[in-house]
């Protein structure tokens, strides 16, 4: 049942109906998630004898990659691997062995996009030993780390990495460690009823062609999974921050950090660790698109707004590409989120005394208290290096973001020491230990 207003629901449904009718999609579903709950669902077209529902399965395509990436990050958090490890350390004998786990996750390994087989999405899959034999040195297209180059093969190797370290198949590993804890029980490696049939729609006539569907076997971690709007909505909530204990909030945030630019000079699309990233209309989105013969899907989450959106359709091509963000625009137009009410908070007097004006040389900076004992240090005029800091057990402050991410801030009686830079209450305060000395201002 919709939890948005009637006018909003009608506007959302109309946008979905226009997509289905004008793009000639056999069936399409869409949903919006807010604060971890599905607040709107819509379906158009037919699956069998009726309209699609929240329980109708569609193929996820490359959204599978994000789920596999979570399994890899869990291994990292357990200490079973490091993201800086070369693949060779855990999966010896591959031509991509010099690439690191992080590079494979972020599509910066330089590995070929597609496997050296017949069109893998439309043919029965190979077993992993056969695939590994075919992926030779000539399948490495770029120096690892040089640039973003999407690689389905890279995620096949990551699936095998998960399988070997867990001692079970990749699908069993993600079922036990990711899908079951998130209660995504209708997400499966093979289709189950009720599911949509994948179709290609003729470009010049209103007829359809059923697309083939096979088990991709070794390539399966790149796009095998099937799911439902209900389950994909739970995944949208996960990407937005409702981790359900599957990952820590810090690890999920790390996955959402840009590791490569995916659209050249535009710089509006990128990739993190198993997650696609996009900046659209002021939003910073994380999620993934999916495409397999007969199926398209997309899921995005905006963690800042605690909102997610998705669609699933059984067509090979032809959709506009703006459906999900248009749905978010409609929600914002009709039911914009209200800001949280401001309330005063208790403050440590010692921290309160640190707030106010500081100077990095002659440049004024403002130090502010954040909720939860955090600090924010930013230029007064808004231009330049800004970071947030959290307290550490040794009395220092750790930078969370910006230029000073990972660096230490130390508080002294008359100055701040930020990774050797000295901040003073007055510009170049002569009473503070400013390197180079201070001789005084003059005309």
TrEMBL record:
Any one Pfam family match given in the protein's UniProt record, by short name:
Beta-lactamase
Q: Does the keyword Hydrolase apply?
A: yes
Signal sequence range: none
EC assignment: 3.-.-.-
- Which protein is depicted? Serine hydrolase domain-containing protein
Give the DUF7586 domain ranges.
348-425
Q: What class of enzyme is it?
A: hydrolase
Upper taxonomic lineage: Bacteria, Bacillati, Actinomycetota, Actinomycetes, Streptosporangiales
- Which GO molecular-function terms appear in the entry? hydrolase activity
Span of domain Beta-lactamase-related: 20-318
Annotated keywords: Hydrolase
- InterPro entries the UniProt entry points to: AmpC-like (IPR050491), Beta-lactam-related (IPR001466), Beta-lactam/transpept-like (IPR012338), DUF7586 (IPR056008)
């Amino acid at each position: 049942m919709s939890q948005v207003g009637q006018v909003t629901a009608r506007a959302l449904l109309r946008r979905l109906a226009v997509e289905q009718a004008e793009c000639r999609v056999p069936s399409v579903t869409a949903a919006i998630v807010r604060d971890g709950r599905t607040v709107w669902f819509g379906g158009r077209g037919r699956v069998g004898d009726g309209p699609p529902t929240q329980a109708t399965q569609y193929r996820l395509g490359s959204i599978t990659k994000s789920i596999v990436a979570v399994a890899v990050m869990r291994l990292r958090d357990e200490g079973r691997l490091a993201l800086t490890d070369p693949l060779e350390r855990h999966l010896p004998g591959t031509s991509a062995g010099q690439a690191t786990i992080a590079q494979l996750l972020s599509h910066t390994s330089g590995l070929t996009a597609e496997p050296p087989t017949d069109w893998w999405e439309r043919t029965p899959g190979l077993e992993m030993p056969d695939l590994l034999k075919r992926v030779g040195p000539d399948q490495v297209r770029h120096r690892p780390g040089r640039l973003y180059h999407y690689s389905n093969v890279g995620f096949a190797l990551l699936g095998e990495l998960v399988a070997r370290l867990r001692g079970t198949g990749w699908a069993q590993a993600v079922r036990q460690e990711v899908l079951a804890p998130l209660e995504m029980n209708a997400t499966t490696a093979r289709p189950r009823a009720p599911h949509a049939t994948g179709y290609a729609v003729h470009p010049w006539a209103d007829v359809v062609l059923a697309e083939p569907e096979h088990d991709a076997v070794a390539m399966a971690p790149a796009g095998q999974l099937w799911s439902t709007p209900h389950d994909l909505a739970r995944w949208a909530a996960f990407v937005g921050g409702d981790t359900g204990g599957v990952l820590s909030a810090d690890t999920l945030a790390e996955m959402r950090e840009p590791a490569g630019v995916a659209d050249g000079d535009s710089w509006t699309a990128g990739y993190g660790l198993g997650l696609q990233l996009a900046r659209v209309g002021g939003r910073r989105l994380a999620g993934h698109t999916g495409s397999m013969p007969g199926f398209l899907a997309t899921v995005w989450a905006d963690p800042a707004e605690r909102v997610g959106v998705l669609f699933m359709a059984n067509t090979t091509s032809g959709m506009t590409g703006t459906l999900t963000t248009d749905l978010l625009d409609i929600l914002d137009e009709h039911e914009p989120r209200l800001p949280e009410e401001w309330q005063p908070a208790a403050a440590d007097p010692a921290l309160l005394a640190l707030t106010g004006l500081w100077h990095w040389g002659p440049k004024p900076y403002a130090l502010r208290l954040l909720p939860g004992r955090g600090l924010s240090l930013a230029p007064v005029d808004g231009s330049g290096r800004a970071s947030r800091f959290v307290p550490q057990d040794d009395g220092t402050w750790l930078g969370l973001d910006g230029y000073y991410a990972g660096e230490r801030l130390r508080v002294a009686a008359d100055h701040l020491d930020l990774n050797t830079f000295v901040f003073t209450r007055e510009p170049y305060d002569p009473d503070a230990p400013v390197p180079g000395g201070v001789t005084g201002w003059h005309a």
